[in-house]
Amino acid sequence: MMWIASCTKLVTSVAALQLVENGRLGLDDDVGQILPEIAELDIITGFDAGKPQLAKRQNKVTLSSSIDFVGLMVERVTHLSLQEYFAQNIWQVLGVNDTTFHLDQRDDLRNRLTDMSMRDPSGGLAIHNPNRFWSLEVTDDFGGIGLYSSAPEYFKFVHAILQNDERLLKKSTVEEMFKPQLSDKSRASLMETLASPTLGPAMGGLPPELEKDHGLAGLLQMEDLPDSREKGTLTWGGMPNLTWFIDRDADLCGLYASQLLPTGEPRSLEMREVFQKAMYQRAKQGVTKM
For position 18, what pLDDT does the model report? Predict the structure, then answer.
């Protein structure tokens, strides 16, 4: 068991798209109709003499809590907690049993929880990290960051999207998931944000110069990577150095999962690339089992 952090976002996105399919949410609807408390929120752009400087929303792309609000929208229109909605409409469909927002309600899972690690100051071995970024006991279901799961269980979910067998979403909805959604201005902002050595690894970990866009459920790479993921691959990551990817052209998906901080730790990035390239090599050779 592990905290999968921002890998939660993919699940919440699928839940929202299910509600788009049945007409309870609309992709172009004003979210203020469902969440009036955020309808007129200003953005804090900085501070002057200790006072926040506020501005209206704009087409800037960065890490935020926006998917947490998407999860809240799911709760508002279904009158279910996100935990309940996921269980009824995603986990039961896929036979996933070991995924939850609330470890305090699942002692069987809490007893299996992996400790967090960090690289020792010399850059050598990974050592125990006594600190936890996310609480083991939370009240709300945070759709952007809150899930605990295991690698095999979460991979069932990622693989189901690749299979596209309509257990979770219609084929037409999955097609829309993989289409670029950003304006030119927003795409430029995304590229600027992903050039950050801190944020880049947390948002898919792609080379900063690689052309990117954003789909309805993750980051889209718009160019091939040598010996690895192809153009059109959908991907995202999680804070303790997790990364999932779905490459429909190669008919391949994967999950690199760890509980190692900080995000973007160099040896973790190196191991992730070794893993991904090995999977593509095995796929090209027709190897289906380890």
Answer: 98
Q: Is pLDDT of 289 > 80?
A: no
Where do the DSSP E strands lie in 75-231?
117-119, 126-128, 148-149, 212-214, 219-221
Query: What whole-number distance in Å separates Cα of residue 202 and Cα of residue 218?
Result: 12
- The Cα–Cα gap between 7 and 285 comes to 29
CB atoms within 10 A of CB 251: 9
Q: How confident is the model at residue 236 (pLDDT cuts 50, 70, 90)?
A: very high
Type of residue numbered 77: V
Q: What is the DSSP string of 6-65?
A: GGHHHHHHHHHHHHHHTTSS-TTS-GGGT-GGGTT--EEEEEETTEEEEE---S-----S
pLDDT tens for each residue of 142-160: 999 999 999 999 999 999 9
pLDDT tens per residue, range 211-231: 999 999 999 999 999 889 999
- Does position 202 have pLDDT exceeding 70, yes or no? no
Cis, bond preceding 262 (omega within 30 deg of 0): yes
Distance CA 236, CA 74 (A): 21
CA distance to 59, 188, 203, 234, 268, per residue, from 237 (Å): 22, 21, 6, 11, 12
Longest dimension (CA), the chain: 63
Report the DSSP pairing between strands 117-119 and 260-261.
Answer: parallel
Question: Residue 97: exposed, middle, or buried by beta-carbon count in 10 A (0-12, 13-18, 19+)?
Answer: middle
Beta strand pairing call for 148-149 and 2-3: antiparallel
As a residue count, the chain comes to 290
